[in-house]
Amino acid sequence: MTPSNPYTSWDVYLRLLKSAAAYWPSFVLGIFGTILATGTDAAMTWAIKPLLDNWSTGKGQWWFTWLPLLIIAVLFLRGLAYFLSTYYLTRVGRNVVRDFRQRIFAHLMHLPASYYDKETSGKLLSTLIYNTEQVANASTEALITVLQEGMLLIFLLTVMVTISWKLTLMFIITAPIVAVIVRYTSKRLRHLSTRVQGSMGDLTHVAQEGIENYKVVRIFGGEEYEKEKFFAVAHQNRQREMKVVATSALGTSLTQIITSIPIAIIVFVATRLRITFGGFGAIVVVILRLLTPLRRLTKINTEIQKGVAGAHSIFALLDEKMEEDVGSKTTHRVHGKIEYKNVSFHYPASKKTVLHDISFTVEPGQNIALVGSSGGGKSTLISLLPRFYDVITGSVLIDDINIKEYKLSDLRRQFAVVSQHLTLFNDTIARNIAYGSLQEATEEKIAKAAEAAYILDYIKHLPEGLNTLIGENGLLLSGGQRQRIAIARALLKDAPILILDEATSALDTESERYIQAALETLMKKRTTLVIAHRLSTIEHADKIIVIDHGKIIEIGSHEELLRLNGQYAKLYAMQFKKKG
Q1: d(CA 213, CA 227)
Q2: 269 lies in some domain
């Protein structure tokens, strides 16, 4: 979703039509209903001429005998036709929008981490929900209006031609002027609608932040600040919406003013032409009826341009490149050897190098700890393993094979992660433990993982047990309980490589002691990478790697690094002093 827009309106229209192509039977029924409905409308208007002529001359009395039944039959047919038109065209539109939402969400699940680094969740949600709804309005209400009123306009002009082609020509002369107005307003409405959608993204983002972080907001007295932020973006959104309304109203008013001039002339001229009483009456009715579709067609242009602007952003998102998955090597379970070879890296959105020529090897089953000051590059180094990002230079290998050669799904199956930044879902405890590819796990296996994470005793005391809902991000659980569920999820996955990012940071002392013992047992059977700030938790690591400003400055065991009396020794002495 870049600021520049590579799509023309015609490109958008064509892609929308292709999206609707799968539902052509409903579309055909809708068009058939539209033609039938507007055709009967025009036929009733056309019937005014012979009806009035016969009435004024006293001829054709059979018209008046059958007229009541004819009216009932025509209106019944018209009602049925309008139902077909509205129902099936709406069905096409809502199906297209459902498909867009499914495609967008599915696409979001496969976009690279670098995309999420540059986009806010508020803007993505706005595209998924608000922009697709704009497309819905354009592809349902607007489509129905364009087809129904457009065809009615054509049929009414056809009726007018049968009465007097000269008068019809006078009306059609204004078409180029109306076309210029519609073209100008369409371009401006599309531009303004794009800005409205941008402000909706800001609105969603600000609201989401304020609601999700309500505890921090209240503790630090940020209520007024958050309200001011929200009020500012809400006011900006209102201003942009009003510009859309003003442009739409101006276009509609100008169209009506311009078309009223030939209508007045037509009425004046018609009184001086040699046409029958019925012909004059029919022309007056046709002209009056023409005003409604003209007004609705110019007014609905606003919804169409909103839909086009929404479709622009949707197609921009869908055209974003997915994660590169060029590897072909499959594996069920690796041995767990990891090797970084001269790895350097910077984030896609920045040219500042955050990892400099990193090289080290981890043998299968080893426990490796990464320590150093915050922002030193530890988490970035770990994020290269499951290929959330790709190295700029150098290579990362697992079992002596470049990780780019593995299929992404197979590569990521080799990792279990427990982070200090917990992610739990608004679902049951069981589904949070047996998440994703683990959802087929039996209740027995889930309970065993929960027991190993020292959370099963708590679960047993809950009325619903494993089927207890835990709220958004585990809101109904304590910090320690949430962390233990995350650990149970990692235990259940039983991956050969375990990544622990301050996995015991949220636990009380008693829980930490038990879980640290469980994790140490787990580490013996797999390669483990531990990011640690509390050095007391990694004293028994096979190897400790000290990273500072993206470079490895020390490497060795706990005892070796203490004897070296370098950065690690200083950090350890500092923490030991604080503890003392």
Answers
A1: 13
A2: yes
Given pLDDT bands bounded at 50, 70 and 90, which one contains residue 45? confident
Q: What is the DSSP string of 375-412?
A: TSSHHHHHHTTTTSS--SEEEEEETTEEGGGB-HHHHH
The b/e string for 243-270 (b: 16+ C-beta within 10 A; e otherwise) is bbeebbeebbebbeebbeebbeebeeeb
Q: How far apart are CA 547 and CA 441, in angstroms?
A: 38
Q: What is the CATH number of the domain that holds 472?
A: 3.40.50.300
In the β-sheet with 367-371, what is the strand arrangement from edge to edge?
Answer: 415-419, 497-501, 527-531, 367-371, 543-548, 551-556
**Per-residue pLDDT tens for 163-175?**
777 777 777 776 6
Asked if residue 245 belongs to a domain, the reply is yes
Residue 2 has pLDDT above 60, yes or no: no
* Contact (Cβ atoms closer than 8 angstroms) between residue 153 and residue 161: no
Smallest CA-to-CA distance from 196 within 154, 246, 250 is with 246
One-letter amino acid of 311: A
Please tell me which residue, 564 or 476, carries the higher pLDDT value: 564
Specify whether 345 is located in the same domain as 286: no
Furthest C-alpha separation in the chain: 121
| pLDDT (tens digit per residue) in 471-518 | 877 778 877 788 888 888 888 888 999 998 876 665 566 666 766 766
Q: What is the pLDDT of residues 361-409, one digit of tens each?
A: 999 999 999 998 888 889 899 999 999 999 999 999 999 999 999 999 8
Q: Cα separation of 185 and 302, whole Å? A: 9
The answer to whether residues 520 and 440 belong to one domain is yes
Given this model, what pLDDT does residue 555 score? 94
Same domain, 418 and 307: no
Within a domain: 244: yes
β-strand pairing of 415-419 with 338-346: unpaired
Tell me the helices (H) and strands (E) count for the chain, helix number first: 22, 10
Residue 395, pLDDT score: 96
Q: Centre a 10 Å sphere on the Cβ of residue 114 and count the other Cβ atoms it contains.
A: 15
pTM of structure? 0.76
Q: Write the DSSP assignment of 434-495 as a string of letters.
A: S-GGGTT--HHHHHHHHHHTT-HHHHHTSTTGGG-B--GGGTTS-HHHHHHHHHHHHHHHT-
Q: How far apart are CA 226 and CA 224, in angstroms?
A: 5
Q: What is the mean pLDDT of residues 313-327?
A: 89
The count of domains in the chain is 2
Q: Kindly state whether residue 4 falls inside one of the protein's structural domains.
A: no
Q: Quick one: 114 and 168 in the same domain? A: yes
CA terminus-to-terminus distance, the chain: 53
Sign of the alpha-carbon torsion through 327, 329, 333, 334: negative
Q: What is the CATH number of the domain that holds 177?
A: 1.20.1560.10
